[in-house]
Amino acid sequence: MVAGIGGLGLAGGCGRALRAEPPPPFVPKYSMEEAILRLRGSACAKALGQATLEPVSLQGYVEEGGQEVVLDVDVVLPPSPLRVVVRIRTALALDPGTGEVLNPSECAKNLLALVEGAQKAISQAEGSPEVKRFLAEHAPVQATFDPSIGPRGRLVFLGTLPDGTKVPFVYE
Hints:
By secondary structure, the chain is of the alpha+beta class. The protein has helices spanning about 30-40, 45, 105-125, 130-135, and strands at about 25, 50-65, 65-75, 85-95, 140-145, 155-160, 165-170. It has a 7-stranded mixed sheet with strand order 1-2-3-4-5-6-7, with helices on one face.
């Protein structure tokens, strides 16, 4: 599904399964920038509200049923009340020929659920004395959200020590 920190497997409804060897690649006719421009104009992106999309990668594969294209993106929430920026890595299935999002209504529903889940998790976390202390001692802090861990998801905060060393803090 999705590699990396935070994520929801294929918000666009693509059902590519994990296997021992990756499928053979192919290069889509469009660039990642073109795919992002199409995505930003879609109903799928409108579901994000004030959250933004940052492209990560565009990959094409040849599967048994034909070609598949996956756009990995980071959904970036606006700063929380305690100024934490939350990122969520997810993948969207695109039409191999046009670059349009497959299943736009499902994509919008899934992205909205991601954003709402992350907003709820950060709101709960910022009420925790441990998180407040970490934020006070390690500002500026960013966080990633993984909705698949536990009943409320997992936030991994990444703060900075005075010497520049990065320090993680996990909240579940």
